[in-house]
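To assess whether ligand presence alters the predicted conformation, the chain was also submitted together with guanosine-5'-triphosphate. Input:
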Amino acid sequence: MTRPALQPVFAVVGHPNKGKSSIVAALARDDRIAISPRSGTTERAENWIFENSGGSYRLVDTPGFQRPRAVLEWLRQHAYSAEQRARAVAAFVDDPDCRARFPDETELLRPIVQGAAILYVVDGSRPYSPDYEAEMEILRWSGQPSMALINPIESQAHVEEWEQALQQYFRLVRVFDPMQPRPELQARLLQAFAHLQPAWHVELEAIARAIEEEPEQRLREAAGQLALWLDEACTLDACTSVIDRTLIPVARSEVQSSYRKVLAEGERKAFGRLLQLYRFKQTDLEVRQLQPPADLLDESQWQLWGLNRRQIYAAAAGTGAGAGAVIDAGLLGHSLMAGAVIGGLAGLGSAWLGSNKLENTRLSLIAGGRWQVCAGPLSDRNFPFVLIGRFGWLLAQLERRSHARREAIRLEPPDWKPILEDLDEAERKALFKACERLSKQKTVDNLQQVLLPVLRRFRNTGEEAG
Ligand SMILES: Nc1nc2c(ncn2[C@@H]2O[C@H](COP(=O)(O)OP(=O)(O)OP(=O)(O)O)[C@@H](O)[C@H]2O)c(=O)[nH]1
Ligand SMILES: [Mg+2]
């Protein structure tokens, strides 16, 4: 057997267009890897590193086998007995003539000859055929530790027959769907490999443990990020000053538009940090609806972003607020409670959403006889809910999003109802209280702690939907 590389390294190999790159993307948690429906997308072997607090491993994405039978023929002519096989594979990779005749095979076998373990990928939705035997045989000849992964691209229809066949060539056979992010499966796969390759045992075990701990740590970090963003957004303002009173209207519209811009930019950055936390580097986020000036600050759009009055009302009522007093009136807002008491959604009217003038501009006379005109901070108690809802919605998407997907994420309205219903009384109270304070530009002690259960609920609704 070739000497194992110092760092765990896996060459991901198989037929063209069977999801090799998708599996590399999933196992490296990297969204930059080229994936497409076109066969032959990956033309050169490429390295991708996965790293966490436990350690790191390297994945080599490779082009697919093109002419495995001819390659096997060549190998047979260069090895007369079993102990010569690995050397024949190495000779094949180094042979200039072979490199010219079999560019894909020399490219994909090179990392294996250099010590990579093998992850062999097949499509479990297509029937098994003996056509695959030549490539499996070649891989066996390399003598490297190996595992077969059945990717159920369209269905599980042929998984069983594949298992039967693959077990003849590989000691470990697993079903692995790169489109479903399942950290526990990734961890188990590494642990299984740890037993195949003693040289990597300690590191792979440590990486697997860290993978299992990651979701909880990530949630904590996300709550911390959201807390910072809320503090920033709720105290944000934009000011300018003018000497001439007649310029005030112009200054007003100016500060309003720069306020909106800074707010949108702040959110874009907060979302960017969340994407980073989830290891998305290249995925586009379409937040078009937030971009035009109105958006976040347009009352009529607030419902779109998860501030559905009816839902909040229903959730509050369903948990006893309507029947009197689980959530105190002060926390929910008098207008809402008044509405609830006179018994009907009609009573809620615009008070819940519209009691405060949005984007209130402030005017004050300052030194030098100038007028200062400011937009913000936004003192509406709904505002923090909008921000939390949008952030929570994105978190839920990221949680269940595979790094093998290439389409953009489109921000959609979050649904607060199940979140509010699922929180326990103390958690919900703390949330309402925190939002109330934030909307008054007051600091909230342990905001991260208050947000943690909220984000956890967002994350869990994501899991159910996924
Ligand atoms: N629905 C679904 N599509 C998949 C899955 N795995 C791969 N695909 C799609 O299949 C196509 C090929 O995937 P790739 O990962 O590029 O396959 P590859 O084996 O690297 O292909 P080459 O580099 O061309 O050899 C892409 O359009 C993927 O989105 C899967 O598990 N489910
Ligand atoms: Mg590829």
